[in-house]
Write a structure and sequence with these properties.
The complex is a heterodimer of chains A (about 240) and B (about 250). Chain A is an all-alpha fold and about 240 residues long. Chain A is built from 6 helices and no strands. The chains are: A mainly alpha (about 240), B mainly alpha (about 250). Chains A and B meet through helix 4 and helix 5 of A and helix 7, helix 8 and helix 9 of B.
Chain lengths: ~240, ~250
């Protein structure tokens, strides 16, 4: 079954991505806010650079999904000691780093285009950066600490999860920059923008699932090889 | 050791709780006694922290009264964080060199007590570092003596800041004993999760350096530090056992 699931998800994501390009750049107007009676409000239209929003925010959703998965699975792993949870946590951690990189880079490009600054210490940016840094630490531990690093990394993920509300309070209280919310709330999107946006989220969700399933299965395979190796050593075959 | 008959008279929970605190104190006292005999960490780490401050004063040569409130807090807390990282690594390396960590974990004391004792010992070392670094900054930077105009918030902030660092640091330094690349991985793990602590601590310090000092804001961030420490303490008590298991 798995042999078909991963390619299928990948193909869906790839076709969907091409389709989002069409949706975003052709179908969706450069956003114009319409008044109650459908009239165009002067000064409310966005610039062309708003197009990146459909990718930036969709990737940010996937980042938060991956971070949440890592935190949840790490807690479950420490509680149950079942290695299955650890495989998922590792996969989600690595994927979170990748999506986080996309979020930070697209965000930076958008910030430069919209505010003429590469970086602003604004709430969402700070949060994403700190989450991303914790996840990079997580992946570095998994990669370079060698055997026995699973529990250590899980502990890091738990601490990172606990730190999130503090980071949130910190950035809301300590934020002296003007509120730079360029995108507003995604729940208030309307019309074609809404369709394009949620279509993009769905596409990246398929991509996310394809990545996580393949990464989890490779982590399981690694574990099985390691266990077989140990058994062969014990049996004196190797 | 108390006579068992006396403990038997007490309600059971009291015995356990008293036992935990006493065991933790014993572990902390053991570490301090080792340290007081050689004074290795005390001398090297405080000197290192002083050097960090001196390097800062050379790399930021044009600090004047106007910007000291923006610069000095960063210097103070970076020096404390660096010194703490080095001290943590060295304190646990000592256990590894003597192969005594296992012995410590095998003692009848609960593991949580081992953790608490270690954290207290590290926090005391970092307090010694802060006691050197803060006056040095006041000496070197113009206008930084204002730090000591409100000693209570400064002391509480330093206490809570070092305690939080020591709590999270002890968990990960102990867990890193078993793995490779521990020297570089300790800060890689610690700094991202401790950024709220650093931000809050530097905010307090910066508030104290304003003219006039913004005490309301300082106490707000001190309470933030307190809650952060409490949350991290709870998590540490929960995960320590599963992280350092042999």
């Amino acid at each position: 079954m798995k042999r078909y699931v991963i390619p299928a998800l990948t193909v869906i994501a790839a076709v969907g991505f091409v389709f989002t390009l069409w949706e975003v750049f052709v179908e969706t107007p450069v956003q114009v806010t319409l008044g109650d009676r459908g009239q165009i409000l002067v000064g409310q239209s966005l610039f062309f650079n708003q197009k990146i929003f459909y990718y930036h925010v969709a990737n940010a959703f996937m980042l938060f999904a991956a971070v949440g998965t890592t935190g949840f699975c790490s807690i479950a792993y420490l509680k149950t000691r079942n290695a299955k949870w650890d495989d998922v946590a590792l996969a989600a951690g690595e994927i979170a780093v990748m999506f986080g990189l996309v979020v930070l880079v697209t965000g930076s490009i958008w910030a430069k285009a919209a505010w003429d600054l590469w970086w602003v210490w604004e709430k969402r940016l700070t949060m994403s950066l700190l989450l991303w840094l914790t996840l990079v630490g997580y992946v570095l531990v998994r990669r370079f600490a060698g055997a026995g690093s699973e529990r250590l990394a899980a502990g890091l993920a738990v601490f990172g999860t606990v730190a999130v509300p503090f980071i949130y309070v910190m950035v809301s209280q300590g934020d002296h920059h003007p509120q730079a919310g360029a995108s507003g709330n995604v729940a208030t999107l309307s019309g074609q923008m809404k369709i394009s946006f949620w279509f993009s989220v769905l596409t990246f969700l398929f991509w996310f699932l394809a990545l996580i399933i393949s990464r989890v299965s490779s982590a399981r395979a690694e574990r099985r090889v390691r266990e077989l190796h140990e058994r062969a050593m014990d049996a004196g075959v190797l | 050791m108390q006579a068992p008959s006396r403990e038997a008279e007490l309600p059971r929970t009291t015995v356990i709780r008293v036992g935990l605190v006493r065991h933790a104190a014993q572990v902390a006292w053991k570490d301090l006694r080792v340290e007081l005999r050689s004074r290795e960490l005390l001398y090297t780490v405080t000197f290192f922290a002083a050097l960090v401050v001196v390097v800062f004063t050379f790399t930021f040569p044009r600090v004047d009264k106007k910007i000291v409130a923006d610069v000095a807090p960063g210097m103070l807390w970076v020096a404390i964080a660096f010194a703490g990282t080095i001290g943590l690594g060295r304190a646990f390396d000592r256990e590894r060199e003597g192969d005594t960590m296992r012995a410590l974990l095998l003692t009848p004391a609960p593991r949580v007590a081992v953790f608490l004792g270690k954290a207290v010992a590290i926090a005391l070392l970092m307090l010694a570092v802060a006691a050197i670094v803060a006056p040095l900054l006041a000496l070197f930077l113009p206008g930084a003596t204002a730090l000591f105009d409100a000693p209570l918030p400064l002391a509480v902030a330093i206490l809570l800041g070092t305690l939080g660092f020591a709590i999270a640091g002890s968990v990960f330094a102990a867990a890193l004993l078993r793995v490779r690349a521990r020297d570089v991985l300790l800060p890689v793990i610690l700094y991202p999760i401790l950024i709220p602590l650093f931000v809050a601590a530097t905010r307090v310090t910066s508030d104290l350096l304003q003219t006039p000092a913004d005490l309301d804001d300082a106490w707000y961030w001190i309470s933030f530090l307190g809650m952060f420490d409490a949350a991290f303490l709870v998590v540490s008590l929960w995960v320590f056992e599963s992280l350092v298991i042999e």
